[in-house]
Amino acid sequence: MIRVAMGGKPDSSYLHLFWELGNKNEETRNNVAEKLVQQIIAKQNEGDEDELCSDANYVLGRLVKGLSSNRKSARVGFATALTNLLLLLPSTAFNSANLLQLMDEKLKVAGTSKSEDKEIYLGRVFCLLSLIQSKKLNEENSNESLAETTKELLKLSETKSFLRPISYHGLGEIVIQVSPVVFKKVIWPLLSDRFNNGWESCTSEQLELLQSCAKTNPKTCNTAYLKTNKWIPQKSKKGNIIGDHCFKHLARIVAETTSCHPKISPLALSILTSVGKLGSKHLGKFWSEHLSSTLLTSSPERKYLSLKLAIHCLSCLEVDQLSEIWSKDLLMHLYHALLNKDNPLHLICKNELPKYLGEKLTEDEVTAEVQYAFLFIMFQ
């Protein structure tokens, strides 16, 4: 139950700021959010620390409701202001349970309009992300609110496919923030069944979350669990999730990351880097036996991905494996795209890739031998 101080109408001096939270300019949005939060905290500090002032109560309601706005940039601006306000409001006046209650009041899914429901769903996710980023869940040591937040993110991830990436991002943030004790007691029991089917039905979001769990909590998400659920071979001693045993599945997962183009998925880059750390021969094998055919025989988006990843791999390769990645098939797709103006990748290959390639070749990780061999392949 929120204790709210008695008060009149909201102070009109900050009401105009709500519109500016949707400004297209990021710096302007951030400045407006900071100004709004400063004014509300000043109001809050005038009264009882354990009682939410009427202005703060009003603004919190407006910010949470505003998270469902479809006005461009507004959702981000409202989320920024909400996160910053939660950071500074004492939990004795407004805690995580209060925010979850407010979210249910202000962001109800009516089910009467698909477009409106979509905005409400996104608003709920952004509200939970603001709560997580404010670190209030950790500061309060509220296992109940932590569990409720985790459950809601899992529920949202299953509701609509477009909610899955951002919901799993929130889950990943929770995994990183909580202590090993809290993870084992509260979080892992809610997450572990997501990983019970091993590689066969694994999505990119599940893999990223599992890796985070194993890295931050190796005693709970341990080798025994990974073996039991077919993430690693029974004979494995190191317990590495990524290895030769899963190359087929990794190729499928990498190919499914094209939704964020033209930006390349950080997970796709991370997978290639992880395979590269196994050794140049492993990377060459992964590419030539699994990834190349998966990407080059598919859509323009996946062919674009293959070119960007091939450039990324230059820092992980030795000369002997260079031709396995920069193969005749890959080069032919590149040449056809450059020569044919009607090719969907023509402008990208002509304007974007040379710059990206030039930047990569100047990195210290790309050896002189690889640079020379690569140039020889390109001009052969």
Automatic annotation (TrEMBL):
Localization, UniProt:
Nucleus
Q: Which GO terms describe its cellular component?
A: nucleolus
> Which InterPro entries does the UniProt record give?
ARM-type_fold, DNA_pol_V/MYBBP1A
SUPFAM superfamilies with a match to the protein in the record: ARM repeat
* Superkingdom field: Eukaryota
Which UniProt keyword terms apply here? Nucleus
**Its Gene Ontology molecular function terms?**
RNA binding; sequence-specific DNA binding; transcription corepressor activity
Q: Name one Pfam family in it.
A: DNA_pol_phi
The family classification in the record reads:
Belongs to the MYBBP1A family.
The record's PANTHER family line, in alphabetical order, gives: MYB-BINDING PROTEIN 1A, MYB-BINDING PROTEIN 1A FAMILY MEMBER
Q: What is this protein called?
A: DUF2428 domain-containing protein
